[in-house]
Amino acid sequence: MAKxxxxxxxxxxxxxxxxxxPKGVLALAADKINKKGHHPVExxxxxxxxxxxxxxxxxxxxxxxxxxx
Amino acid sequence: MADKVLMKGNxxxxxxxxxxxxxxxxxxxxxxxxxxxxxxxxxxxxIGGVFLxxxxxxxAINMVYGVASTGHRVMTSSSSPGVSLKSEGLSYLxxxxxxSLIVNVQRGGPGLGGIQPSQSDYYQATKGGxxxxxHMIVLAPASVQEMADLTVKGFELAxxxxxxxxxxxxxxxxxxxxxxxxDYDIAPAPEKPWATTGTKMERExxxxxxxxxxxxxxxQINFERFEKYKAIExxxxxxxxxxxxxxxxxxCAFGIAARVAKxxxxxxxxxxxxxxxxRPITLWPFxxxxxxxxxxxxxxxxxxxxxxxxxxxxxxxxxECKVPVTLCNRVGGMIPSPxxxxxxxxxxxxxxxx
Amino acid sequence: xxxFDKPHALTDVPMHYCPGCxxxxxxxxxxxxxxxxxxEGKTIGVAPVGCSVMCYDYFNCDMIxxxxxxxxxxxxxxxxxxxxxxxFTYQGxxxxxxxxxxxxxxxxxxxxxxxxxxxNNAIYGMTGGQxxxxxLPGQVTQTSPYGRDVNxxxxxxxxxxxxxxxxxxxxxxxxxxxxxxxxxxAKKAIKKAFQNQVEGKGFSLVEVISSCPTNxxxxxxxxxEWIDEKMIPYYPLGVYKDRTAKEENK
Lengths: 69, 354, 250
Prior knowledge:
The complex is a heterotrimer. Chain A is of the alpha+beta class. Chain A has 2 helices and 4 strands. Chain A has a single domain, classed as Alpha-Beta Plaits (2-Layer Sandwich), CATH 3.30.70.20. Chain A has helices spanning 16-20, 54-58, and strands at 3-6, 26-28, 41-43, 64-67. A two-stranded antiparallel ribbon of chain A has the order 1-4. Chain A has a two-stranded antiparallel sheet with strand order 2-3. The longest helix of chain A is centred in the N-terminal third of the chain and has 5 residues, at 16-20. The radius of gyration of chain A is 11 Å and the shape is globular. In chain C, helix 1 (23-37) packs across helix 7 (180-198) and helix 3 packs across helix 4 (101-109). The N and C termini of chain C lie far apart (44 Å).
């Protein structure tokens, strides 16, 4: 399982990472609002993450760090 | 006494620039200053410098902006219509506090105008030369020797104050041939820690920029820049006084007009008229001190210009409007004759009558 | 093991771009390439006027902000003064293909040894969505409210095709950043464009088809789809000039 770290305060909630994830790991947090006033991304199904980094590849704000054990 | 060589004014500027350590020249052909570019095209490749003919005056001034960002001495030259095109770049150079040297060998205008000498870019040079609150140091040579000397001085002042120096010459000065000494003792340019030379991973990145979206910040920067301008006004004004000790009439002229005026003054003195000359060498900062003094001494100031009287406002301000300022001029590429100036002097001496 | 992290050449300053704007992706690709080539300490970037005007805050290398359209001239000055520096410009379509067309064409014609990253999103973003030189025929913008009428305002400028007719440039490629595959290809092209400069090969320009969700009036996801549906058919991706490869094939 890969590990995802988000710079949540820099997320603009565009959702490009959510759309591109092949495993449905990500979602925009409907119940949270970050400093910028956006619903930030969060990992709702992190155990399914395969560390492909598609999310980070498409993230325009470079807020996602992907590590593998 | 150093050896003198016979040179054209335009060539003297070019060679003096090289002597001052300017290894980068960018320009676009326009009469009557093309000799500068031609000279640089010949010389630069032989001394490891850069001569590049740009696609436009706009490109040339922005190449200057690029080199200036790296901290190297750099120049461009043009003539009136070309300088108008450069005015965007002049504003950006001012906004980013970059040193550079610009030469304007003026020709008649407005529009395409003509190719004969003029001084009708005085406003453009001294009152800004682009959008926003800014000044350039404006140097007005009246001999081929001064074309060279003021070029060296222009680079030094530009570096000292991180701003643009402009040589405001005219077609006559550019084409004139005189003996000139180019023996300079050039001080090393100051350190430029702000320059974009690459971080070498040893410092924070430098940013050369004129964009400040916060009005508070932009106001502060403008205030600070004008503090600098104030210091320049106090310390860097240059002028020549000629026979002003006992003068009752003052002629004011710069550049080629000052040479004509001197001839007329010599003739007037032969006729017993007490007349002298104040020749501003810096047009910005305008030398106020001699005019303040003259205002208490003379009955009239005659401004001799190759324009419709663009310098008169500055003379009136400097002399605090205490004496009448009249205009003796030719425009459109014409030059006042010594006879015309003498006539104006005689008229002033007679209280307005010939 | 780190699979993906922010490149060093990108600063920590939050980018001001709208949500889903692909400027950020291209910034990151440029920064990754700078990292991988180990050139940050000798790179000088030139920022444009337009949405990416403040990119001088986002790159860790030395940066210069240029007047609108003049970045290639500024870059020319920098490169001529410091030939060992790596100099790149980052410009949008209004900056590069409209007001700065002369500087673009002539820096290419001179084969100036610089790298240009050209963002084509078919619109003026910063000023609020006006017609760009690259806006598509029929495209609705603030200044073409009934759609771009080619009889009234002519046709879009195809920069790579146009520059490929010059003898000067070394390398011209058009890429897109609307999906993972295209982003990876874009990075490869950007890396080549910088590598060319390192090797002294000359003028390299990468045109990046990008999205502007805000001014296109689309969601970030729909904007990426619009690139596939509308932009790429008009602006085909691919290499338009690669002099070295051509000479090697001879």
